[in-house]
Amino acid sequence: WVNGDGTSRLVVARAGSAVSANPLDGIQYNDSPVFGSGSDLGSGNFVVYAGSNNFLTVRGLTGGQAYHFKVFEYNGNGITADYLLANPPSGNRTPNGLEISFTINDSTLCAGQSTVMAVTPAGGGRTYAWFPTSGLSSNTGTQVSATPSVTTTYTVVGLDNNACRDTVRQTITVFPLPTVTMQAFSPVCDNASPFTLTGGSPVGGSYSGLGVSGGVFNPAAVGPGAYTIQYTYTDGNSCSASTSRTITVNPAPTVTLGVFAPICSNGAPRLLSGGSPAGGTYSGA
User: Fold this and answer.
1) Nearest CA-CA partner of 85 in 97, 71, 105
2) Which of 104, 33, 31 is nearest to 67 (CA)?
3) pLDDT block averages, 10 residues each, the chain of length 285
């Protein structure tokens, strides 16, 4: 602007419409070149400059938004401030600018999981760069997939064809998977009774596999063979991990016993025989 004959100038700015408030004599206003940070005269009229220069660089603006200004000459300071309110020069400018917003599918992950991060707006000569690149499907573009191994804060920098830029950040929290173990199973026979599976750690998980129902394994339901039993545990962060062991089901032996010849009640003790396979035991009255 062109200075008048006052000792200083007060610049008032307003977004969207003409400046609608005037300074009052006897008041020293606080100025700030960051729009919205200086003294508020009311109705969104902010003091952006107070001094003797004839220029001002304003910051903190929104691209595409019109800003209106008035420049008031004044003498004195504090209670002696005297503002010239008649016909202050005015004008407006619309800055170029890029303001981007950030969306994310899920900012809390378990180790090994992925999420999608995206920024808007897209197109129109805008380019985007993502940092750090670890765990990202790409370091450019409006949408990337992130699979961080640890908690990571990602930054995306947008740049438009007017060389205006904006930066946003998003932290993705990564919880480790629980450590899950399971003890080895002893072999069982196919005619053994159903039994409750145990040995998984931490306790509170679930067992699954052929022949398993409600944490109970039924050997007769599957027959002889080797079967994989899986134990899965989910922790308080909803992160799950699993481990597995093999349980062997052996066929029960086929046992026969020959017919005994009658004996007299006063007969001598007799060694029992005729059981097959040999090596078993006899019992009874």
Assistant:
1) 71
2) 33
3) 95 97 96 96 97 94 90 96 96 86 94 95 82 95 96 94 87 97 97 97 98 97 97 97 98 95 93 95 95
Give the tokens for residue 260: 């005994």
Torsion sign over Cα 140, 143, 144, 150:
positive
Alpha helices by DSSP H, listed for 110-231, are 219-222
Could you tell me how many helices (H) and strands (E) the chain has, helices first?
A: 1, 23
Q: Token pair 């197109």 is at which residue?
A: 123
Whole-number pLDDT of residue 61:
87
Query: How many whole angstroms separate alpha carbon 11 and alpha carbon 49?
Result: 5
3-state SS track over 1-45: CCCCCCCEEEEEEEECCCCCCCCCCCCCCCCCCECCCCCECCCCC
Say if CB 52 and CB 23 are below 8 A apart: no
Q: The tokens of 82 are what?
A: 């005297």
Q: Do residues 181 and 243 touch, judged by C-beta distance below 8 A? A: yes
225-234: strand order across its sheet: 188-189, 240-250, 225-234, 206-208
Residue 35 amino acid letter: F
Q: Please tell me the predicted confidence (pLDDT) of residue 124.
A: 66
Structure tokens at 175: 């919880």
Sequence-separated (6 or more) residues with CB below 8 Å from residue 152: 132, 134, 135, 146, 171, 172, 174
- How far CA 187 is from CA of 115, 190, 197, 225, 246, in Å, comes to 43, 10, 13, 10, 9
Backbone angles phi, psi at 198, to 5 degrees: -140, 175
